[in-house]
Design a protein that fits this description.
By secondary structure, this protein is of the alpha+beta class. The protein contains 2 helices and 5 strands. A hairpin with a 4-residue loop joins β3 and β4.
Length: about 110
């Protein structure tokens, strides 16, 4: 989130509004734009733990009734394991202050 005029005399632009969107809970499916190679993200493993990882490359695209769901291969953990994650499944989140706060509230040391 960028700093704005303290008086808020200038209305936010659409770009600023889109940048200010963040998930309200860790289980909420959340898709955001700009997922690309090398981006740092948080992923929920099959064991149910959240780990910091790095996007390696795009995976297959699924066409469902909900949306066109893009998937991503993410390298995470101490052993640098690589798995497939989908934002609409709620198991991948951006590494932002808002997501880190949600992780702290869930008891993770971030």
């Amino acid at each position: 989130m960028r700093l704005r005029n303290w008086k808020e005399t200038v209305p936010p632009t659409i770009e600023e509004t889109l940048m200010d969107v963040h998930p309200r809970s860790l289980d909420e499916p959340f898709h955001w734009g700009g997922i690309e190679w090398g981006l740092t993200v948080w992923v929920k493993t099959v064991e149910g733990k959240w780990c910091l990882g790095t996007v390696e490359f795009e995976g297959p695209t699924a066409y469902t009734e909900r949306a066109i769901e893009q998937s991503f291969y993410v390298r995470y953990g101490r052993n640098k394991k690589s798995d497939l994650f989908r934002p609409y499944d709620g198991n991948i989140k951006p590494d932002t202050p808002e997501v880190r706060e949600l992780l702290r509230k869930a008891g993770y040391f971030v």
